[in-house]
Amino acid sequence: MKHFKLLLYLCLTVCQAQNVGTALHLNKPEDLRSGFPVSEITTEITFYNSSGSIEKKKEVSILNAQHRVVSEQRFDENGVLTARLTWQFDSTGTKSLGRKLERWHKLMGYSSETSSHEYDANGYVTKTTAKNQQQQVIMVTYIKNDERGNAIEVITTDSQGKAYGMERAEYDYPNNKFVSRVYNQNGQFVSESTGKITNEEANDPTIVKNEKGDVIKTSDYEYEYRYDKKGNWTFKIIYKIKNGKKVKQSEFKRNINYLK
Fold it and tell me: Assign residue 47 a region: left if phi > 0, alpha if psi is -120 to 50, beta otherwise?
């Protein structure tokens, strides 16, 4: 059991490592309309898995004046707290300096780890250091960026500098896409994936947006929204298009608390 717990801890830790996807979304504000300060968002999430099972979660997020999340609590379908994240920002409230992650796991009990970011003169993150509950370094991530500040190479090592692996990315800016390739510690190719650089859609004739500017249809997905009086969505459904039919993948219900 001790060996199993150690392997589980290492898996959870490595899964939290910085990668191209997380680097792209670092310091991004919440999906909210500007002009209406928000203090807290409670999001109820339902996933409809391909196996037919349904998974439910809840997240409670506290925001700063720049609509960056400074605290987030995560609950399972029974309302049990499973994780809490706390972020620190610079004086502008827009650049993350670090984060603390606390977990409550059925087998492992309570655990926590912290991470801190280093930036270059251009304000691009170049290094992330993760420490365990005893403040011992457990992981270091080195990031190389292109001229736009997006990660083109991410290398994650252990506390002794031994690499877990490497990820490299190529960007197609006109079409808002990137390709990521993962390599193991020996430099051997492992996998490849694609994604969007930002949530904005570019040069794609299949994209359809509603009057509020939210995407409601792509070549692979369809979206449904309901909005509050301030124009922020409070309910969203995501459908995957399979063989010409809509298959519900997930639902998001948001309760938004505005500052008065």
Answer: beta
* Cβ-contact 97, 103 below 8 angstroms: no
Average pLDDT over residues 131-138: 95
Closest C-alpha among 143, 180, 142, 145 to residue 162? 142
Query: What is the band of 9 on the pLDDT scale with cuts at 50, 70, 90?
Result: very low
Question: Band of the pLDDT at 123, cuts 50, 70, 90?
Answer: very high
Supply the pLDDT for residue 34.
78
Distance of CA 200 to the CA centre of its chain: 16
* CA distances to 39, 56, 238 from 77, in Å: 24, 5, 20
| DSSP H or E segment with residue 120 | none
Q: How many C-beta atoms surround the C-beta of residue 180 within 10 A?
A: 19
Residue (of 16, 213, 27, 2) closest to 107 by Cα position: 2
Query: CA-to-CA distance for 64 and 88, rounded, in angstroms?
Result: 11
Please provide residue 179's backbone torsions phi and psi, each rounded to the nearest 5 degrees. Answer: -115, 130
Rg (CA), the chain: 20
